[in-house]
Specification:
With 74 residues, the protein is α+β, with helices and mostly antiparallel strands. Helix content is 32%, strand content 20%. A 3-stranded mixed sheet has the order 1-2-3.
Length: 74
């Protein structure tokens, strides 16, 4: 089973995983990842919170990716 978090923030050495919902499967996968890679920092972020960040910071960050944002479809 492959798992690749959505973002990597090199300045803080943290991986970010954005989730629509935290289903049981997602929780299991998260726990497995943390057990296999205890030294890797992984932060889960619900999509609702991601969209708030996007709304606040996207205009300040060059090449902000919008492909999963509802605003793309407006």
């Amino acid at each position: 089973q492959n798992y690749t978090p959505d973002f990597y923030l090199p300045e803080t050495d943290i991986y970010i995983e954005v989730k629509n919902f935290l289903w049981k499967y997602s929780d299991i996968r998260d726990k497995k990842f943390r057990k296999l890679y205890p030294n890797i920092k992984l932060q889960l972020l619900l999509k609702e919170d991601y969209l708030k960040l996007e709304n606040t910071y996207s205009k300040l960050v060059k090449n902000w990716e919008y492909k999963n944002s509802p605003s793309v479809f407006l």
